[in-house]
């Protein structure tokens, strides 16, 4: 387990202070998921030349808002004048897109690469920086994830981060459609941007 010493003042405090803030927001099971995502993100970051401190912080905060009540998200969508279309979705979409706004204001993290990694960690996006790709994939393949295909997802991602993104985009869209769930437009855009590109 890697415990980074933060040096870049991206979060105004120590890693332990960030852990304390996050553990106040999350039940233990979710908190432990977040720790595993951080570790997986550090591994993917090292392999893909991504800044380790940003990978650690983004991994730790990516689900910061996951256990907030719907009213908090609805209030934030209105207060910060986010796209009103968001009101048609729910926690699955809000905890990333709206969660980033709460992280900015409550944790004083202003690094846009980190905030975008949080915003896009559930749906992906057409363009994703290497850090955004690392967080999107770390969340999907952290060691406790157990779904049919996770072993292949880990193999593909170890070989090529972008191919991992394509794998997840395809399988998530498939899952949503098979279960009759609403597809957030960005999830479809992610599929179109990434999946055909990786077919050979
Ligand atoms: O927060 P986590 O559980 O760690 O993981 P996540 O943020 O990737 O959320 C995964 C869930 O989000 C999974 O159940 C599928 C769902 N999801 C992803 N894209 C969409 C979506 N749900 C809806 N309704 N629409 C989407 O486009
Ligand atoms: Fe999440
Ligand atoms: Fe997560």
UniProtKB/TrEMBL annotation:
Matching Pfam families, A to Z? HD (PF01966)
Entries under SUPFAM superfamilies matching the protein: HD-domain/PDEase-like
Q: Quote the EC number.
A: 3.6.1.41
Question: What SMART domains does this protein map onto?
Answer: HDc
Can you state which reaction this protein catalyses? Answer: P(1),P(4)-bis(5'-adenosyl) tetraphosphate + H2O = 2 ADP + 2 H(+)
Q: What class of enzyme is it?
A: hydrolase
Any idea which GO molecular function terms this record carries? bis(5'-nucleosyl)-tetraphosphatase (symmetrical) activity; metal ion binding; nucleotide binding
Which keywords does this chain's UniProt record carry? Hydrolase, Iron, Metal-binding, Nucleotide-binding
Task: List the InterPro entries hit by this protein, alphabetically.
Answer: Diverse_Catalytic_Enzymes, HD/PDEase_dom, HD_domain, YqeK
Q: Where does the HD domain lie?
A: 30-144
Put simply, this protein is called bis(5'-nucleosyl)-tetraphosphatase (symmetrical)
**Taxonomic source organism:** Levilactobacillus hammesii DSM 16381
């Amino acid at each position: 387990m890697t415990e980074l010493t933060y040096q870049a003042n991206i979060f105004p405090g120590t890693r332990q202070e960030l852990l304390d803030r996050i553990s106040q927001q999350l039940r233990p099971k979710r908190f432990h998921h977040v720790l595993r995502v951080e570790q997986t993100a550090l591994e993917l970051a090292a392999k893909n030349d991504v800044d380790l401190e940003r990978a650690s912080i983004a991994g730790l905060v990516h689900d910061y808002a996951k256990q907030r009540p719907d009213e908090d998200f609805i209030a934030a969508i209105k207060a910060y004048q986010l796209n009103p279309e968001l009101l048609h979705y729910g926690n699955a979409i809000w905890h990333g897109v709206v969660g980033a706004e709460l992280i900015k204001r409550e944790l004083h993290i202003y690094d846009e690469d980190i905030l975008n990694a949080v915003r896009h960690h559930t749906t992906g996006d057409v363009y994703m920086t290497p850090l955004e790709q690392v967080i999107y994939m770390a969340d999907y393949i952290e060691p406790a994830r157990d779904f049919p295909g996770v072993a292949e997802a880990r193999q593909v991602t170890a070989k090529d981060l972008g191919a991992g993104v394509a794998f997840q985009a395809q399988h998530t869209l498939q899952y949503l459609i098979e279960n009759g769930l609403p597809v957030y437009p960005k999830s479809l855009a992610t599929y179109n941007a990434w999946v055909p590109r990786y077919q050979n």
